Amino acid sequence: MKTFNKCKFCILFLLILPYILIFGSCAPLQIVQVHVINRLPDGMTMTLHCQSHETDLGQSILEVGEEVDWSFRVNYWGTTLFFCDVQWDGNGFIWYHFNAYDATRDYRRCRTECWWVITQEEMLYGYNQETDSWEMLPFLNSV
Q: Please, what are the domains in the chain?
């Protein structure tokens, strides 16, 4: 009976080991909180629509200085993806797209929190928890 329990433990360990090696301390089902902040100039409102493949968070209209935040658990497979479309006054009603959380990119960068700021220069900045610094990231294809 003891040999059987040791075998079960070894099999379980071998199944979990690759995940630990790939994702480090970002355990499956880790809770992550995402924040998106409007720092556009001159009172420009920002319309934000964020979702994952399973959850639509709806549309929010943010005044300058306001933020939207939500939290979720990273799925076991490390494939969690939340993406957002954003539009603001004065940009000709063009929608810009960015991934607010992509497990393959953010498992170290945003271990517990992802901070996003859309600035006066109409640029996207994301906070990197691993390097303790802000990074300018491009918007993806406009919608």
A: 27-137 (2.60.40)
